[in-house]
Design brief:
This protein has one domain. The N terminus is likely disordered. It is globular, with a radius of gyration of 15 Å. The longest helix is centred in the last third of the chain and has 11 residues. It is built from two helices and seven strands. It is mainly beta.
Length: about 140
């Protein structure tokens, strides 16, 4: 970490196919677990064939990653099993580091910078872009 930077958040994982849309709230958890996007999110699945999981599935699978073998829609040839996020405040910028994981090991990573309401850095698409936006909110 560079001098003057502050580690703001470090989160676990989310399913790489999960597209978060709205916050679910605490729900039935007592206490709520530490979640990758900060809170439980509702959304849809971007695995082949658009699907909207029920709330229990979103909480137990989509929000926590490593769905391979737990979710019938998770593609067997998927590049990654989960996405991990960290954020560091660097002056006015929020530097978001994402790491795609497979079999609990880093696969590839990247950096997205959020400043003045805009994202720069790695050009992300699909579910990963929506996860970064949820992570920032």
């Amino acid at each position: 970490m560079r001098e003057g930077s502050n580690l703001l958040a470090y989160r676990c994982m989310a399913c790489p196919f999960f597209v978060p849309r709205t916050k679910l709230g605490e729900g039935p958890w007592e206490p709520a677990p530490r979640l990758p996007l900060g809170e439980a999110w509702g959304g849809n699945c971007a695995a082949p064939g658009l699907h909207v999981p029920d709330e229990l599935e979103m909480r137990d699978v989509c929000n926590v990653g490593y769905a391979r073998g737990k979710c019938e829609r998770f593609p067997s040839d998927a590049e990654a099993d989960a996405v991990r996020f960290s954020a560091i405040r660097d002056g006015e910028d929020l530097r978001i580091i994402y790491i795609l994981e497979k079999d609990c090991a880093p696969l590839r990573h990247g950096l997205v910078i959020y400043s003045e309401g805009k994202f720069t850095g790695d050009l992300l698409e699909g579910a990963l872009f929506h996860q970064v936006k949820a992570f920032v909110s």
